[in-house]
Design brief:
23 helices, globular, 549 residues, mainly alpha, Sodium/glucose cotransporter
Length: 549
């Protein structure tokens, strides 16, 4: 009972603080609702960025991947820091110079309205079919496991997932649709502090459990008895082979932190460029510590459960139940619940923004005032949330949540990153080149990963079976060698689409060179320590990799 009281109490406290902090914000205007009145400071931006990213699909999914594969999966966390540095130095100054509310708005100015609309629809499709359902399902898996919902409510595991999905979905929808970005950002900042504290407590208590009360003994036992789990450079059979860091991994990171609307919208709401850059760099520095929260617990769980769990994604909720004292379970569940809501309502708020400005205002009602745009954006958000709540429980058998999410995201991530990068780095590549790149990038990736890969992998495994090969390690190696890694496919398609766009630009250039205008929405004077801080962060990341190599 104490757990439930502390859970409800902390959740309500965050909601009240968010309401009090946002009640004076004009949410009938686009800037007020979608960007928090362009008033976000570095601390709020950093907290919101971290909590938007650090949700249960990350905590549960990546720890599950670490449980199965070890430290090599930390690339998803560590390299994010470098991507944020690049975003702060290169992309954010250009976004704020153009006074953007959505990333696709740049595409309308650089290419044409059709390119912007196509990109917005691609974002929205990815959100409702992939991202929102994964967030809801992974969050429900965590909450159901921590509170033992099946036993508490006398329901089946599947029924408990449905109950949690709809509970999280309804509360998250209220936050995002009726509160706007500032409500999301303020609640994120509060929960970020709790998540960092609570997230660090899990490995601390886990190591104490291994070392009979001693953290240092726990570290010694864990590293001595599981040396294969502490290698930063993944092998060919790991989810992240080391070489993929130099192929598609950085492209995925640049898309996520630099062009993904749900993430970059926080930085777009900065009061000026200095605050935006400081917020991104603060988040990137904290992100270096991310493996302590989203990788180390998975390795600890592997040791404590002796690798006996049937599903790797169960490792984190079970570890929390095992090592966390009862009096802290309610608090941590509330913080984790806040993280779930953060990712869910952040994606939903971005979806409302994209639909309201890039679809409704552009194509349905061009004469709509800002209040009407916000109104219909909210209505769309509710429909989107309901659709995601129906889809979420259906992905229970999708395998590793985190690997599934990253692979499927490639359908839209690489095509969008391609046209944004080429758009900013060139001046005469025409709109038709962007449209071709989007279509070819999406279609070729779908053909590669969902038709060609299964065919080649199944053929190779059948041949191995006929040859009498049954060893699991040998089969895993055959599986990994039968077809290129999805990160390699992303890199190949990125280069292919860039080449196509440049060729079209050479032979059919746009009549006038593109010149970005300064809208003077915010001050774009850069932070004077930007370069020094960015270089320092990159050196730390490289040092971590070398130490664990």
């Amino acid at each position: 009972m104490l757990n439930i009281i502390s859970f409800v109490g902390f959740t309500l406290l965050v909601g009240v603080i968010a309401y009090l902090a946002t009640r004076k914000t004009d949410e009938n205007s686009s800037d007020g609702y979608f960007l928090g009145g362009r008033s976000l400071t570095a601390g709020v931006i950093a907290g919101s960025l971290l909590l938007t990213n650090l949700s249960t699909e990350q905590i549960v999914g990546l720890n599950g991947s670490a449980y199965a594969n070890g430290l090599s999966v930390m690339a998803w966390e560590s390299l994010a820091a470098i991507a944020m540095v690049v975003t702060a130095m290169f992309l954010l100054p250009r976004y704020l110079k153009g006074g953007l509310i959505t990333v696709p708005q740049f595409l309308a100015k650089r290419f044409d309205v059709a390119t912007k609309t196509f990109t917005s629809v691609l974002f929205l499709t990815g959100y409702v079919v992939v991202l929102l359902p994964v967030i809801l399902y992974s969050g429900s898996l965590a909450i159901s496991g921590m509170f033992n919902i099946p036993e508490l409510l006398n329901v089946t595991h599947t029924q408990s997932i449905w109950i949690c999905v709809w509970g999280i979905g309804i509360i998250g929808t209220i936050y995002a649709v009726f509160g706007g970005l500032k409500a999301v950002a303020v609640s994120d900042s509060i929960n970020a502090i709790g998540l960092l504290i609570g997230g660090m407590l899990i490995p601390v208590f886990g190591l104490m459990a291994i070392g009979d009360g001693s953290i240092m003994d726990g570290i010694s036992i864990l590293t001595t008895e599981n040396p294969e789990k502490f290698k930063s450079m993944g092998s060919a059979t790991d989810p992240v082979p080391f070489y993929t860091i130099f192929t598609g991994m950085m492209l995925v990171q640049l898309f996520y932190w630099g062009t993904n609307q749900q993430i970059i919208q926080r930085a777009l709401g900065a009061k000026d460029l200095k605050e935006g850059q400081k917020g991104l760099l603060l988040a990137s520095f904290i992100k270096i510590l991310g493996p302590l929260i989203v990788v180390l617990p998975g390795i600890i769980a592997f040791h404590l459960f002796d690798g006996s769990l049937e599903k790797a994604d169960e490792a984190y909720p079970m570890l929390v139940n095992l090592v966390l004292p009862d009096y802290l379970v309610g608090f941590f569940a509330a913080v984790l619940f806040g993280a779930i809501l953060s990712s869910f309502n952040s994606v939903l708020n971005s979806s409302v923004t994209l639909f309201g400005l890039d679809v409704y205002k552009q194509h349905i009602n061009k004469n709509a005032n800002e209040k009407t745009v916000v109104k219909y954006g909210k209505m769309f958000g509710i429909i989107l949330a309901i659709a995601a709540m129906f889809i979420a429980p259906l992905i229970a058998n999708a395998g590793s949540l985190f690997d599934y999410l990253q692979e499927v995201n490639g359908i839209y991530s690489i095509p969008i990153l391609t046209i944004i990068v080429v758009g900013y780095l060139t001046k005469r590549v025409p709109a038709i080149a962007a449209k071709i790149a989007i279509i070819s990038g999406s279609v070729l990736y779908i053909l590669s990963q969902f038709f060609m890969q299964p065919y080649f992998v199944n053929t190779a495994l059948e041949n191995a079976s006929e040859s009498g090969i049954t060893d699991k390690v040998a089969l895993a190696l055959i599986d990994s060698q039968a077809y290129p890694h999805f990160l390699d496919i992303m890199a190949i398609l990125f280069l292919l689409n860039v080449g196509i766009m440049l060729l079209i630009g050479k032979f059919y250039p746009r009549k006038e060179a593109y010149v970005q205008e300064y809208t003077k929405q915010v001050d774009i004077t850069p932070w004077k320590y930007m370069k020094q801080a960015g270089i320092t962060i990159c050196i730390i990341v490289i040092g971590v990799y070398i130490y664990f190599s």
